Amino acid sequence: LSGKKFTPHDYIVFSSFIGPALVTKDGWKLRSYILGEQQGFQLYHLPTDYRETKDLAAKYPQRTASLKQLLMKECNGQLSNGVFQLMALPPTEMEDVKREKAGQLK
Question: Cβ(70)–Cβ(22) under 8 Å?
Answer without folding.
Answer: yes
